[in-house]
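User: I'm new to structure prediction. If I give you an amino acid sequence, what do you actually give back? Let's try with this one:
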Amino acid sequence: MDVGKYVSRTLRWRLCYGLTSRSLLFLLFLNHTASGQIRYSVPEEMKKGSLIGNVALDLGIDLKRLRSGRARIVSGESIQYTELKTDKGTLVVNERIDREQLCGDVTPCSFSFDLILENPMELHPVKIMIQDQNDNPPQVLYPVQTGGSLVAEMVPRSADVGYLVTKVVAVDVDSGQNAWLSYKLQKATDRALFEVGLQNGEIRTIRQVTDKDAVKQRLTVIVEDNGQPSRSATVIVNVAVADSFPEVLSEFTDFPHDKEYNDNLTFYLVLALAVVSFLFITCLVVIISVKIYRWRQSRVLYHSSLPVIPYYPPRYSDTLGTGTLPHVYNYEVCRTTDSRKSDCKFGRAGSQNVLIMDPSSSGTMQRLQSEKSILDEPDSPLEVS
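Assistant: Good question. You get back a string of structure tokens that encode the predicted 3D arrangement of the chain. For your 385 residues, that looks like this:
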């Protein structure tokens, strides 16, 4: 740029906007230190850390200068899409770049920032161009795909060849050739009756409608873009061939679902029935096996020649005439003739605490008293004294 022209323009800015002398000097300094702009072109959706370019090599700046000048990026964007690696002098992706989010429908899409160095001050503008990628499928605007209600286009039986039934409208948020759309008829109740425009998506009749044509017609249209690889969307168009609305309503009350949907539903129902039947049979077999096993065990014990050891519960009372004391207190004491002189003490059963209510048990009581008197008799003449 011619310095004289720049100074004259700066003077006009001072007169118009009231700039101070210091501001003028700063503008002149920036104009003197700013170098040419560098530009990079990168595809969108690059991964974080991907290389954009080597700014040190492209600007002819030494790596020591980047570090000593504290090189940094200054951008007006709220999101810092790029990062400067001062140790290598490279520019890398810092955040995922979505062209549709950044620029919308504006083409071409780009963003700019400045590379600033200090001591002395240097300013290097950098511009990044974003290349569109085919990352979005087409979106169908009409006919609206509703889940519950049924929408049908009506065609009179008097319709001639080329009658416009409806038009499929779709858009693609990508740009360039990635947004070019084409329409194709994938499936139809009667393929010899309708056709779809390749570029405009118009559905027209290709022959005369007759009385033999079914009232209910279903068309499946696929919308594809021109990207690599291409992305697509599918739309269902219901068509009623009739002359009056009552005929349409009577025919469309039981409009069949898509065959593929019915096949899937039948498959899942059969699978669920098979699983439930398998679980029921398995439980039944397990229960019968347990019953048979227990029956066989009882038969084995019944026919066994091994002696049966009775089980006495705690505090069991013997009622067969062996004594009135609880079963846990029935025991025999064997002592020698001089056992009274030993230091060993034997516990007594405590028969004094047993209350006999049955008069018929008096004989047992007398026997106990006699046994007690025998035990209390002295075992030797020494004990009498």
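You can read the tokens as a compact description of the fold. Here is one thing that stands out. The CA atoms of residues 92 and 280 lie 62 Å apart.
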